[in-house]
Amino acid sequence: MPDVRVALPDRVLRGRWLGTPAATADGWAPTLVFLHEGLGCIEMWKGFPAALCEQVGLRGFVFDRTGYGQSSAWPVSPGTRHMEIEGEEILPQVLDAAGIGPCVLIGHSEGGTIALTYASCQSPLLRGVVTIGSHVVVEPRTLASIRQAREAYAEGELRSRLARHHGSQVDDVFGTWSAAWLSPGFVPMDADARLPRVRVPVLGLLGEDDEYGTPSQLTALARGVSGRCETRVIPGCGHAPHLQAPSLVLPIVTRFLDTLWRRPGVAALALACLLGLAAPARAQDPCAAPGIVAGLDEAVRHLDRAEDADAVSTLRALDQACPSARLAALAVAGWYEARRVAALGGDPAALGPATLLVETLQTESASQPRLSLTALAGEYAAALVRAALAAAQDERDEMRLYLVHAQGLAESLRAAGVERLWPLPIDAASGELWQEVDRFAEARDAFRRAVPGTGGRVALGLARAFRRLEQAADACAAYHGAVRAGLGSAAEQEARDAIARLSCPEP
Fold this sequence. Notes:
This protein has 507 residues and is of the alpha/beta class. 56% of the residues lie in helices and 9% in strands. It has 22 helices and eight strands. A hairpin with a 2-residue loop joins strand 1 and strand 2. Helix 16 (373-392) runs antiparallel to helix 17. The longest helix is centred in the middle third of the chain and has 21 residues, at 323-343. It is elongated, with a radius of gyration of 25 Å. It starts with a strand and ends in a 6-residue tail after the last helix. Residues 262-283 have low confidence and may be disordered.
């Protein structure tokens, strides 16, 4: 397709659309946005973006970043912050100016780092991220290869190759890139602060023989992000596996993209939700009865106050003709039983009731239409109860896998308009389970994501995490917040005792 010009307030970038008009028929389908590497441009992607768009039937957009290819130069030198500025400030403007709504970012090398930076800002437009040879930390191998590139540039061979793409801007392109990376103390991104805020699904790819990075990049990525993360090392490839082994990379990326919008599919979820709301029999729906709605609301209040046993009793008393009430009762009872197993030190003899409830949840889910919201909500609940059972037995890796699965389901359910997830919202549940396995930093970060609009339960969890991290002032503030938000008698007494032990000042 012909190039387009994307006009921003202080610069003009060259872009190019990919895909066919049919790819835009589904308004929920994301646009694939491609972010090139540190010395790249549109042409250096070669045929990969077009092949991927054709493979998955999605529209794509590829562009020259600021200063690269045929885009205009930086109005003011970004110094060592070029990736941060690109992700935080420039990319949102590009998406807005190009009229791009839901999207998936696909970034190569620095482009992947920029994509993760943008993802950490938690834009509601973003559906997922694919990184190829990206950097979240600095490694000696990276710096050694950049020094070699600087020598090759000085000798003229690399400069002449790059000049074919960047023209008169070539010296600025190479100088900005190499100077930033070789500056003392340079880091590609604030990984500790940003990665935990990445909640969308992420696929990380790395060539087995990547001259700019090692599998440590994938390890740091998977450990850092809060959402679902898949990583793959592509054999026999260097820094550009999408160009060196497209027959391996295309199927991997295609399968990942399918999980974001086709299976179960945001469009299908939204349609299921709309069909349910528009059904003529809605007035006779047993779940719409005032008693059911009031009972579900009461159970949520009990959960917010950390009164799980009372929530179980309330839900079990509801009319079991309502699928939502049955699901809620099974989910909260399963969570309660799994946490009871944890209180008993993971005793295998105590696993029976929780395991039976998980099996019943799965049976309930299987009895519903495959793409129904009830089926997905049941799968979400079963994943959380299994994560709780794994935590009770200190099986951290297994717990994390179930949490990642639940996170993906939670994102799909939220996209379809489901606001109430049983037994708990994903961040509140994740915080409690990370705390249970003594991973207090992860627990703190999860509770922080869950704080807005929650009750005393989350504030109490956050206070416990702060206390174990020896952050006394933050713990005091959270304990006071938990008391103000409302807690059950036992939980409130715990908070007040902690306030006294920490000699917390009055808020």
